[in-house]
Write a structure and sequence with these properties.
The structure holds two protein chains of two kinds. Chain A is α/β, with parallel strands linked by helices. In chain A, 22% of the residues lie in helices and 20% in strands. In chain A, the strands form two sheets. In chain A, strands 2-1-3-4-11-10-9-6-7 form a nine-stranded mixed sheet, with helices on both faces. A two-stranded antiparallel ribbon of chain A has the order 5-8. Chain A is globular and about 45 Å long. Chain B is built from five helices and seven strands; from the N terminus they run H-E-H-E-H-E-E-E-H-E-H-E. Classes of the chains: A alpha/beta, B alpha+beta.
Chain lengths: 276, 228
């Protein structure tokens, strides 16, 4: 039986997504109430929700093109209304593809499709790529990343075949830069922006990993912060500070259960919304 | 005239001694229910409100290539042998296909059981002549810009072919849109509107920021088959 999501975080369950449960768990890890919301439930039940997340996976089995069928669903009309009112909206991986195909991201012209998440371009390989990568937090007014320091390096896994942000309109990129919409960029473990694979794991223009709308409350990101929410999820061989912390946690259950590098995406929801 | 054409099919290499470069196309579709096509139809009709325009839709995997290594028949036979064996192209359990020479000199040459000239399933299930009036079939090829997979397909074929080499391979998805229209120009316009994703409310089959649309043919149905 559907129930209201007032003050809760709604994780939208399109047919074919597969990261919804761990996304709910990640939100709950910061002390917020979260639940699944089926794509065909009454959209009015989302009124008053604290935030909305489109999780990763394969909505509609990626038929035709990743994210495009879900983008046409009626619920996206409601999410658009809520986003325009200022409700935080996050798309992770397939959720990011849905936001791009909906025209909510970059959102310079509402609902106009100004970007694509195209198949990965990688050296000597093609298709799906799953690996921990490093993200650099850029200067931005994005709601979802404000708990990170500017320039901070955040390791998070990617897991996709179509994650390459592209546009055929260079002006879109320039506008996104001017507006501070390029929120997260792929970088080395030392924070260097290197366009080559594997630092840039998919050939994304400008090493873009995450883009927000001009108002900052809608974020589309290809990496999976819900898979980096606990220390136990961090690989032992990771370079940098988080790798050292993870190796230091070996043998201690308590140390394994502390926050991982991706959790602060969700912690951002504890802070008051900024008006859009 | 007929004899002369046959001579091109079965003749040796060429009269000037060079190997023939044969233009070929491979169209493959599922012989079971195609869920991608069903999803496209439902999305166009139910979510984009194009039910008045769309009469039917077929979805194919498509390859085009130049092949050389003998006369038309020999080249066709060898490419046919390989694409039947390699599931990257066809799987006999679930696909039917049409492999055809598109070169004007040997257009009649063909392999496979897919009859493209009869593959016009209407969404309402009708098939009589009168129901086809005012319907156009628009074949829309969707390819990716700089598609890395095309080189992969080409290499894969060349590894398996014996005495035949392919080059210039193009790969993509072919969407046959059956649309109600007053003339071919209107049909083309409707198909483009259905195909190119401009916004959340317009277009479905390709994202123009990384994909290309080529409308390869527009044909009117009815009058005993496909008309001009």
């Amino acid at each position: 039986m559907p129930h209201e999501f007032k003050d809760k975080v709604a994780v939208i369950q399109f047919p074919g997504v597969n990261c919804e449960y761990e996304t709910v768990a990640a939100v709950r890890s910061v002390g917020l109430d979260a639940g699944l919301f089926r794509w065909n439930d009454d959209p009015a039940l989302l009124d008053g929700s604290r935030a909305i997340i489109l999780p990763g996976g394969f909505s509609y089995q990626d038929r035709i093109r990743a994210g495009v069928v879900a983008a046409k669903d009626a619920i996206m009309g409601k999410l658009g209304e809520l986003a325009k009112e200022g409700t935080p909206l996050l798309g992770i991986c397939n959720g990011a593809q849905v936001l791009v195909e909906s025209g909510f991201i970059p959102g310079l012209h509402w609902e106009r499709v100004d970007l694509a998440l195209a198949p990965n371009v990688m050296a000597d390989r093609e298709g799906y790529y799953c690996k921990w990568v490093y993200l650099k937090k850029e200067e931005s007014r994005c709601h979802w990343t404000r708990t990170y320091l500017e320039g901070e390096v955040v390791p998070v896994p990617v897991s996709h075949a179509e994650g390459r942000f592209v546009t055929d309109d260079r002006d879109i990129i320039e506008s996104m830069k001017e507006n501070g919409q390029i929120v997260l960029r792929y970088c080395s473990s030392r924070g260097e922006i290197d366009v080559s694979f594997p630092v840039n794991p998919n050939g994304s223009v400008e090493n873009i990993a995450g883009v927000c709308n001009p108002e900052g409350n809608v974020l589309a990101m290809m990496p999976h912060p819900e898979r980096a929410t606990w220390m136990r999820q961090v690989p032992e061989d990771l370079h940098g500070e988080w790798g050292r912390k993870r190796r230091g946690a070996v043998g201690s259950i308590d140390a394994m259960l502390v926050e991982g590098p991706g959790r602060r995406i969700f912690t951002s929801l504890l802070e008051a919304r900024e008006p859009v | 005239m007929r004899k002369e054409k046959k001579g091109y099919h079965t003749g040796n290499v060429t009269t000037d001694g060079k190997k023939v470069s044969v233009k070929m196309e491979l169209w493959v579709r599922l012989k079971v229910v195609d869920l991608v096509a069903r999803t496209a139809i439902m999305t166009l009709i139910d979510k984009l409100d194009l039910g008045d325009d769309l009469a039917g839709l077929v979805h194919y995997s498509y390859w085009a290539m130049n092949a050389s290594g003998g006369d038309f028949e020999r080249v066709l036979e060898e490419v046919d042998r390989v694409i039947q064996m390699d599931s990257a192209f066809t799987n006999q359990n679930k696909h039917i296909y049409s492999l055809m020479v598109t070169d004007e000199r040997a257009r009649a040459l063909h392999r496979g059981s897919l009859e493209l000239e009869k593959d016009y399933p209407l969404e309402d299930g009708s098939s009589n002549e009168s129901s086809l009036g005012g319907i156009f079939a628009v074949d829309c090829l969707v390819r990716e810009m700089d598609d890395m997979r095309e080189r992969g397909f080409e290499a894969r074929l060349n590894e398996r072919l014996e005495g035949v080499t392919v080059s210039g391979l193009k790969a993509g998805a072919m969407w046959r849109l059956l649309v109600h229209a007053v003339d071919a120009a209107a049909a083309r316009k409707i198909a483009r509107k259905m195909a190119v994703t401009r916004s959340r409310r317009e277009g479905l089959l390709l994202n123009p920021h990384y994909q290309l649309l080529e409308i390869v043919s527009v044909a009117q149905l009815g009058n005993g088959g496909v008309g001009a």
